[in-house]
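Weekly structure sync - notes
Attendees: PM, LS, DV (DV joined late)
Agenda: review two folding runs queued last week.

Item 1: First target. Sequence and structure tokens pasted below for the record.
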Amino acid sequence: MSQSFWESETAEEARPDRELHEAPVGAEALAVSVDDFSALEDRVLRAVELVKRERQARGAAEDRAVKAETHLSEQTALTERLQEELNTLRAERDHVRQRVERLLTQLDALEL
């Protein structure tokens, strides 16, 4: 035999001041007490508020994700440019090093 919601432990948590009663038979079984309806209404309202807060949080998280992706793409482009500049500077350094080594070699040859 299955219990109805109002006979369950969940319903009892919603109305701790009430005693557990057997469900009446017939038309009286459809009647819901004011306390039970009020408890159900409170639970529904809390659920609606929770859904609203979660939707707002989701929207904010999606906005932050879009901003982070934009920032990441900007940083990636900057990183690529800086890497190219670094490679160019290293090539220039190597070229200058070779020229200095040639000059030093020529100075050594003159001193002999």
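Item 2: Second target, run right after the first with the same settings.
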Amino acid sequence: MTLSRYFQTHSMTEFAGALGVSVSLISMWTSRKRRVPVSRCLEIQRLTGGILRCELLRKDINWRR
């Protein structure tokens, strides 16, 4: 699932609050103006109960190390 699809049914404001970041930063990640930092991927995966997986947030990273 993509971030934009996730936010069709979830609150971007609550998500940003849970991560301690601004809604505008989440919006930039969603619109792909900025990449989700690698350091945030696992936190996002945990926060969403695995709905948003690291492998889909950052396809350029080899997560199977």
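Discussion on item 2: Residues 3-57 form a domain with the 434 Repressor (Amino-terminal Domain) fold (CATH 1.10.260.40).
Action: LS to circulate a short write-up before next sync.
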